[in-house]
Amino acid sequence: MTVVRTPLVVGNWKMNGSFERNQPLLESLLSHLAQKRLPEVGVCPPFPYLAQVGALLAETPVRWGAQTVSEHRGGAYTGQVSATMLKDLGCSYAIVGHSERRQYCAETDDAVARQAMAVLDSGLVPIICVGESAAEEAACQTLAVIDRQLAPVLLALAGVADEGASVVVAYEPVWAIGTGKTPTPEGVQAVHTHIRAALDAAGLVQTRILYGGSVKGSNAETLFALPDVDGGLIGGAALDAQDFSTICTAAANRLV
């Protein structure tokens, strides 16, 4: 049986944006996307702008989400934001395990798995990031790193295989994020094939796998034509309405 997965493109704004700049950016994006066949599209702004972005995108095809989330449901965790709070803000997604969170905030593989389950339990979609550093890639450790990062997630998801369609994995080689460098298409496909095999073995055949790492309008068509790439998690290009819309159009070509 052929499994059909709806392509997904999510823009990660990282620590960018302002109340003044967000509105024209989103209005321009919606204008570029108008009258086009679209994949599933979302944006993840910083926490302070979630309410504004949600108001601007209400009644549009574009969804929104957060860049991180607490593993806790509530309580004495100063500075943290729970998945239920994100749901109150109308979020659809929460990114977990981004390499910048792993690096700067010391988030572990086990903590990422707990965050993913907290997101799922609240009815949102976790976008679970995995990827190797430049040193790990040079040492031919890419697949071993991916396996290590995925292991606690797959263990946590054991027995909830029906949630596969509500989970997204994003492969982002750390050395390609914001550098302008990308792996070869063959390299991207090889890693995605490996991830797909691990997900299939866990019964998560509906899980979408995104690629992230210097995706832009000029290379999106090539990347999204790869059989196991279901869309992209986009960084810098998500702050350019025209480039982001070009990427969305490229992903829409995967629609049957």
From TrEMBL:
<feature type="binding site">
    <location>
        <position position="214"/>
    </location>
    <ligand>
        <name>substrate</name>
    </ligand>
</feature>
<feature type="active site" description="Electrophile">
    <location>
        <position position="98"/>
    </location>
</feature>
<keyword id="KW-0312">Gluconeogenesis</keyword>
<keyword id="KW-0963">Cytoplasm</keyword>
<dbReference type="GO" id="GO:0004807">
    <property type="term" value="F:triose-phosphate isomerase activity"/>
</dbReference>
<feature type="binding site">
    <location>
        <begin position="235"/>
        <end position="236"/>
    </location>
    <ligand>
        <name>substrate</name>
    </ligand>
</feature>
<dbReference type="InterPro" id="IPR022896">
    <property type="entry name" value="TrioseP_Isoase_bac/euk"/>
</dbReference>
<feature type="binding site">
    <location>
        <begin position="12"/>
        <end position="14"/>
    </location>
    <ligand>
        <name>substrate</name>
    </ligand>
</feature>
<dbReference type="InterPro" id="IPR035990">
    <property type="entry name" value="TIM_sf"/>
</dbReference>
<dbReference type="InterPro" id="IPR000652">
    <property type="entry name" value="Triosephosphate_isomerase"/>
</dbReference>
<comment type="subunit">
    <text>Homodimer.</text>
</comment>
<dbReference type="Pfam" id="PF00121">
    <property type="entry name" value="TIM"/>
</dbReference>
<comment type="pathway">
    <text>Carbohydrate degradation; glycolysis; D-glyceraldehyde 3-phosphate from glycerone phosphate: step 1/1.</text>
</comment>
<comment type="similarity">
    <text>Belongs to the triosephosphate isomerase family.</text>
</comment>
<comment type="pathway">
    <text>Carbohydrate metabolism; erythritol degradation.</text>
</comment>
<dbReference type="GO" id="GO:0019563">
    <property type="term" value="P:glycerol catabolic process"/>
</dbReference>
<keyword id="KW-0413">Isomerase</keyword>
<dbReference type="InterPro" id="IPR013785">
    <property type="entry name" value="Aldolase_TIM"/>
</dbReference>
<protein>
    <recommendedName>
        <fullName>Triosephosphate isomerase</fullName>
        <ecNumber>5.3.1.1</ecNumber>
    </recommendedName>
</protein>
<feature type="active site" description="Proton acceptor">
    <location>
        <position position="172"/>
    </location>
</feature>
<feature type="binding site">
    <location>
        <position position="178"/>
    </location>
    <ligand>
        <name>substrate</name>
    </ligand>
</feature>
<dbReference type="InterPro" id="IPR020861">
    <property type="entry name" value="Triosephosphate_isomerase_AS"/>
</dbReference>
<dbReference type="GO" id="GO:0046166">
    <property type="term" value="P:glyceraldehyde-3-phosphate biosynthetic process"/>
</dbReference>
<keyword id="KW-0324">Glycolysis</keyword>
<dbReference type="GO" id="GO:0005829">
    <property type="term" value="C:cytosol"/>
</dbReference>
<dbReference type="GO" id="GO:0006094">
    <property type="term" value="P:gluconeogenesis"/>
</dbReference>
<comment type="function">
    <text>Involved in the gluconeogenesis. Catalyzes stereospecifically the conversion of dihydroxyacetone phosphate (DHAP) to D-glyceraldehyde-3-phosphate (G3P).</text>
</comment>
<dbReference type="GO" id="GO:0006096">
    <property type="term" value="P:glycolytic process"/>
</dbReference>
